[in-house]
Each structure stands twice: as structure tokens, then as C-alpha cells.
Design brief:
GO terms for molecular function: glycosyltransferase activity. It comes from Hanseniaspora osmophila. Keywords: Glycosyltransferase, Membrane, Transferase, Transmembrane, Transmembrane helix. 41% of the residues lie in helices and 15% in strands. It starts with 8 loop residues before the first helix and ends with a helix. The protein is globular, with a radius of gyration of 26 Å. The strands form 2 sheets. It has a 6-stranded mixed beta sheet, with helices on both faces. A two-stranded antiparallel ribbon has the order 4-9. It is built from 13 helices and 9 strands.
Length: 328
């Protein structure tokens, strides 16, 4: 009589279990891989959740070509790479657009005095490039977004009534007139959000609404009378031009709002050094300030050192839970 082969119950049971559930096991393995190796906002991008026409676009002033007056140093390249990666990750997380704009002293400006007005020109170009965007956020290269979980909607736009000063009544370092005849604040929404530091308007981090008013303002701001006739009087170029427009044009004044500096543009120690004891200016990690701007670090300060310091703070604050657990 022929003997049947001895059955190995455990072996066949185990094999049948994996065969039966192999799809589920594969799916779970893939999900775990994505959780640990791909950031949540990167995963959302892969899944195609983000729109091709973002409502908010970040404009990052940069100079990826290396420079015109001189070639950039290794530290300047490193600062630029850190800044770009910081903004790219933030945009992926929130579904915003990012456009990186070259800011060298271009040849077409070389016969005039409008180098400082490139910002205005770039804003005009970007508004044509993204006609369906609602807001544009201009950021200088020496900035870091320190709280990537904060969206502009929750951190700024939903709190405008509490944050915005329309008449310079709360903070007015330039002693500009606090009121102008015919300026109607009640019936006009804010289309330009800026901050002030110890020297006046700060344009290193500004929010610009996509509107007809903004386009008209940019045309006025781009007026050759400013950059050709006032270049000897206006040390800060486009900043001084906007301050003059604000002081003298009611239709401009009534649609500009001032945010507290630390809302979108906090400073490191060393900037506004004569006000080192004034907490209105300087980044505070405990208060979860949104953005730090190494403004003026090229003038007697260490841009790379400051960038490294705040990048280290950023990494400590935003390290993933599993990185802390496994000390990665």
C-alpha cells in the first residue's frame, strides 16, 4: 500500500495565510514606507491633491545665476539652497505655488538707477504669470519660515481685524502723518500687507493681493520719476518710493495695512541693534514667530552664521517624532 506523504500542517497553514493576505500585507508595507520615508505633504503632492493654479504664490528673490557684479561665495550658495528648500517644503505642505525669481543687477537697468525697483518689476511679471492667484507673498532670500505648520490663511488672513494697523496709530518710526483727507478705510479692504522696522517700511516679507488696485499701484511705483530723479535722495530706493506714495496718496494709503513685524518678518539680534531691548523686533522661538529675516546681515554681520543658527532651531522644532524616538 502506497504511503501518503506526511503533512506538515503548520507549514501549509502559514503558506496559505500569506497567500491569502498578501495584498493586505503589501499595502500595509507600502503605507509604512510612505509614512517613514516620504513627508505627508510630499505624499499629497504625489497623489495629485494640489491644484495647478494655486491661490497663494510665494515669490522668492534669489540669484541662482551666480551674480553679475561678482561671483557668489560658497556660503552665499549655501544660504540660497537652504532658503529655497525651506520655501519649497512649506509650499508643498500647504498647496501654495513657488516661483524663484532672479535678482541680479540686470543689463537693462545698467543705464538707469532702478536696480532697487526690480522687486516691483518682478511682482508685475509674476501677477501676469499667475493670473488666477489671490495673493502673492514676496520673501527675500535671507529668510526662513520657522513654523511650517502655520498656513497664511490661519496665521494672517483670518486674523486681519486683530492684527492690522491701517493708520500708523500704533507704530510709526518715520513719523509719517497718521491721517490724510479723503482716505476711506472703512469701505476698503487691505490689498497690501507690510511690516515696519526701526528704519521704516520693511519690504523683505510682504503680502500683495491680486487686484486692479495692486496693478495700478505697481505702475505708479515703477514711475521713472522715482528711480531717475530721486535716486540721490532716496537711499532705500523702492522702500522710500512706497513711503512717499503712502504719505501723499489717499487712494494708496487706504488699502495698505501694517502687520506687527514679528507676524511675518521677525529679526535676529544685530538687526535694529539700537533697539536691542525692544521685543517688538526680534524673533522669539517660545512665541512661535512665523518667519525670521536676516535683514541687513551683509552689512557687518555674518549671514551664514545667522542662517545656520536659525536652521538649527528650525530642525529642532520640527523634527519628526520618529527621528526623536530613534535619535536620527
Amino acid at each position: 500500500m502506497e504511503k501518503l506523504p506526511r503533512s506538515h500542517g503548520k507549514h501549509f497553514s502559514s503558506e496559505s495565510f500569506f497567500a491569502k493576505h498578501k495584498k493586505i500585507i503589501l499595502i500595509v508595507a507600502c503605507v509604512l514606507f510612505l509614512i517613514f520615508w516620504i513627508s505627508p505633504f510630499g505624499l499629497l503632492k504625489i497623489l495629485g491633491i494640489y491644484s495647478n493654479e494655486p491661490e497663494i504664490v510665494i515669490i522668492l528673490a534669489s540669484n541662482v545665476g551666480g551674480g553679475v557684479l561678482r561671483w557668489k561665495s560658497e556660503q552665499e550658495w549655501a544660504i540660497e539652497r537652504l532658503s529655497i528648500e525651506n520655501k519649497r517644503n512649506y509650499c508643498l505642505r500647504h498647496g501654495y505655488g513657488l516661483t524663484i525669481k532672479e535678482m541680479p543687477i540686470e543689463k537693462r537697468y545698467s543705464h538707469e538707477y532702478r536696480e532697487g525697483w526690480q522687486k516691483v518689476d518682478v511682482l508685475k511679471q509674476t501677477m501676469r504669470e499667475f493670473p488666477n492667484a489671490k495673493w502673492f507673498w514676496w520673501l527675500d532670500a535671507e529668510t526662513l519660515i520657522m513654523e511650517p505648520t502655520f498656513s497664511l490663511e490661519s496665521h494672517v488672513f483670518s486674523r486681519l481685524d486683530d492684527l492690522v494697523d491701517r493708520t500708523l496709530s500704533e507704530f510709526n518710526p518715520l513719523k509719517l502723518p497718521t491721517d490724510t483727507p479723503y482716505a476711506n478705510y472703512l469701505d476698503n479692504e487691505v490689498d497690501l500687507l507690510i511690516t515696519q522696522d526701526c528704519g521704516g517700511f520693511n519690504l523683505g516679507s510682504i503680502l500683495v493681493k491680486n487686484s486692479d488696485w495692486t496693478r495700478l499701484l505697481l505702475d505708479m511705483w515703477w514711475d521713472p520719476a522715482g528711480y531717475e530723479q530721486k535716486h540721490m535722495l532716496w537711499e532705500h530706493r523702492e522702500q522710500d518710493a512706497l513711503e512717499s506714495l503712502y504719505a501723499n496718496e489717499p487712494w494708496i494709503r487706504e488699502k495698505i495695512g501694517f502687520l506687527p513685524l514679528r507676524t511675518i518678518n521677525a529679526f535676529p539680534p544685530g538687526a535694529c541693534s539700537e533697539f536691542s531691548s525692544d521685543p517688538r523686533y526680534f524673533y522669539n522661538s517660545n512665541d512661535r514667530d512665523f518667519v525670521v529675516n536676516m535683514a541687513g546681515c551683509n552689512y557687518g554681520r555674518d549671514c551664514w552664521g545667522e542662517m545656520q543658527r536659525y536652521m538649527s532651531i528650525y530642525q529642532d522644532k520640527n523634527r519628526k517624532w520618529y527621528s526623536k524616538l530613534f535619535k536620527l
